[in-house]
Amino acid sequence: MKFFDSEYFTYNSNELFCEGVSLTAIKEGAGTPAYVYSKKFFADRYTEFEQAFSKVNHKIFYATKANFNLNVMKTFYDLGSGIDVNSGGELYRALKIGADPKRMLLTGVGKTKDEIKLGLEHDVLMIKAESVDEVYFINSIAKEMGKTASAAIRVNPDVDPLTHPYISTGLAENKFGIESARAEEIILECSRLSNVKITGIDIHIGSQITSINPFVESVIKMVELIKRLELKGLKIEHFDMGGGFGITYNDEIPFSPKELADALIPIFMQVDCQILFEPGRFLTGNGGVLLTEVLFTKSNSNKNFVIVDAAMTDLLRPSIYKAYHHVQPVIKNGSKDITADIVGPVCESGDFLAKNREISECKMGDLLAVMSAGAYGMVMASNYNARRRPPEIIVDKNKYYICRARETYEHLLYDEKIIDELH
Ligand code: LLP
């Protein structure tokens, strides 16, 4: 089998460490399953992205949907990032870390009145509208509140991001944004509303995109649109090009921020706007693992199974996208490789972390690390089968911190009660 080794998750005398802390020590202190993140990874990726675009006026808004642990959010915020929030709940979490709403973007294809009001009450930098209806709705709410809303309009550039269909968002068939062909007319119409100021154009073409071309294609289209709007007298202050920058889960070779910058900066230079980015996965994905213990192993005539204590309820991506997450033992013990399905305890055949995967033979009590679990891991966890969601741990050099404890059985009953009249 292959072993993934990086500066952040590395084997030290055959034992896997996160920065300076062994994963075995974390298991002893926090149990399994558990998410473990490297703070240095987050900081290094943020700095890498930030520096790549230093030649243009830009700002990163961390897409907190990828990992909304308060300490992860705060790590990026303290480095200078803004926060892209996709719901009232994410906005609430951003407020909880003390984030300035002027460093927040409010995103979402279907915001409720309450969510728009919340964004307006706090004066977020921009509310990104995804339909004409929504712009009019924002306008009427802002009017009621005696405010002028700063808004961006999300345009669907109709380019193929060449990624998993469930995470592709920039094709005409997807639900996101307004139609590119009518964008100029719609944006000009919306700019005449009394209580909305259109300050931005926004795109987000999909996620886990590993080729630069779809970005170049859509940025060219949007820069042309911005020029046309400016000729008609509408100055666009922000061009938000979303996130979607792919990472290596297995053998993908994505572009680096520097390569992306080299391709995009000359196009950005044609307009005078601040460029906004909303990376989520790039900043967090390979900075986390899901630590899990082998409960049992078994074999039948044609398959080996490794049954672990983590499940689809902890990491959903393999089940819903057939996503690849590398799985490797915490202790390299030189045992022979086998091919196995690595499965969880949930009552579904779809509950697997890896299928037909080459892995060193393991036994009850062994620890495994499910790699690349820092993005869209814990945030997509659920309580199905009344399982408690796992803890989240951040390692900073030689110390680890339990930033969110494992849920208790009481958490599972939150505000749920037996109603006597019903029985
Ligand atoms: N901005 C917007 C408007 C988005 O919708 C997204 C992700 C991002 C930024 C951040 O994209 P990123 O840089 O992380 O690719 N659950 C899926 C991913 C869904 C992404 C949804 N939107 C997964 O596990 O792969």
**Helix tally?**
12
Ranges with pLDDT <50 over ≥5 residues? none
- Ligands bound here? ligand LLP
The number of domains? 2
For the record, give the distance between the C-alpha atoms at the N and C termini, rounded to a whole number: 57 Å
Averaging pLDDT over every residue, what do you get? 96
What Rg, in angstroms, do the CA atoms define? Answer: 23 Å
Q: Helix amount, in percent?
A: 25-40%
How does this structure look, described?
- This protein has 423 residues and is of the alpha/beta class.
- The chain folds into two domains: 9-38 and 285-412, Beta Barrel (Lyase, Ornithine Decarboxylase, Chain A, domain 1); 107-279, Alanine racemase (TIM Barrel, Alpha-Beta Barrel), CATH 3.20.20.10.
- It is built from twelve helices and 21 strands.
- The protein has helices spanning 23-30, 39-52, 70-79, 88-96, 113-121, 132-145, 183-191, 213-231, 257-268, 281-284, 317-321, 409-412, and strands at residues 9-12, 15-18, 21-22, 34-38, 58-63, 82-85, 104-106, 126-129, 149-156, 178-179, 196-202, 238-240, 274-277, 288-299, 304-308, 327-329, 337-343, 352-360, 367-370, 392-396, 399-404.
- Helix 2 (39-52) packs parallel to helix 3, helix 5 (113-121) crosses helix 6 (132-145) and helix 8 runs parallel beside helix 9.
- It is globular and about 70 Å long.
- The mean pLDDT is 96.
- Residues 63, 65-66, 84, 107, 167, 204, 207-208, 242-245, 278-282, 317, 375-376 line the site of ligand LLP.
- Ligand LLP binds at residues 63, 65-66, 84, 107, 167, 204, 207-208, 242-245, 278-282, 317, 375-376.
